[in-house]
From TrEMBL:
The keyword Transferase applies. This is CoA transferase subunit A. It comes from the Bacteria. The keyword Transferase applies. Pfam families: CoA_trans. Gene3D superfamilies: Glutaconate Coenzyme A-transferase. GO terms for molecular function: transferase activity. Keywords: Transferase.
Length: 245
């Protein structure tokens, strides 16, 4: 099976349709499939339901699809960095299904594992539980949550081989691995592409059986930082504290 495609548009060709459910990996701007999101925008599909921990920021990540009003519904945990999202939601133009972050992660993992639903204590007695089945087990109350299996998953990986075996790097190993398992088709953008067999099997995070299409990112692909936090440099200007004679 040929998995390598020349660019993001080619990798998504024939997969996109109005009204589909899409997993989009990443946390903030870390590990987001930016090139694939841009290609979805350019394809013009609409009425999308997108599952993502957050909605990107204005002008980046899923913010691109919000600006073009291609997203009808977000299933998310945190969306506080996107003014466009807030404006559309408050105007009644965007539907949101909020999930506690751990619950969202487990819903995706369950979808990939073929588990249709599970029970969790998280959210019981709150608005999160409204309209959902609840049960009591051993004197404790639980809320039933449904697993999520998407039409398409778009994810970002640090390295892949030509068979689709994936390695994620640091914080970018967030929602990407579980989303790769929980969709009919998984398309991945990668920073480094090597031949099959060149990744140590013990280093593989996602087996290639879950990946159908791969696009290699250009060397100058920009990985944006959502919030840069640095510590001020301390300069000692007191000669008395100097070791210089």
């Amino acid at each position: 099976m040929r998995k390598i495609y020349p660019d993001a548009a080619a990798a998504l060709d024939g997969l996109l349709k109005d009204g589909m459910l899409i997993h989009s990996g990443g946390f903030g701007l870390s590990g987001i499939p930016g090139a694939l999101i841009a290609a979805i925008r350019d394809a013009g599909v609409k009425d999308l339901t997108v599952v993502s921990n957050n909605a990107g920021i204005d002008g980046a990540g899923l913010g691109l699809l919000l600006e073009t009003r291609q997203i009808r519904k977000m299933i998310s945990s945190y969306v506080g960095e996107n003014k466009t999202f807030a404006q559309q939601f408050l105007a009644g133009e965007l539907e949101i299904e909020f999930n506690p972050q751990g619950t969202l992660a487990e819903r995706i993992r369950a979808g990939g594992a073929g588990i249709p639903a599970f029970f969790t204590k998280t959210g019981y007695g709150t608005q999160v539980a409204e309209g959902k089945e609840t049960r009591e087990f051993d004197g404790e109350h639980y809320v039933m949550e449904r697993g999520i299996f998407a039409d398409l998953a778009v994810i970002h990986a640090w390295k892949a081989d030509t068979e689709g075996n994936l390695v994620f790097r640091k914080t970018a190993r967030n929602f990407n691995p579980m989303m790769a398992t929980a969709a009919k088709v998984t398309v991945v953008q990668v920073e480094h592409l090597v031949e099959a067999g060149q990744i140590d099997p013990d280093h593989i995070h996602t087996p290639g059986i879950y990946v159908q299409r791969i696009v290699k990112l250009p060397a100058d692909y920009e990985k944006r930082i959502e919030q840069r936090t640095t510590r001020k440099r301390v300069t000692d200007v007191n000669p008395a504290n100097s070791n210089v004679a």
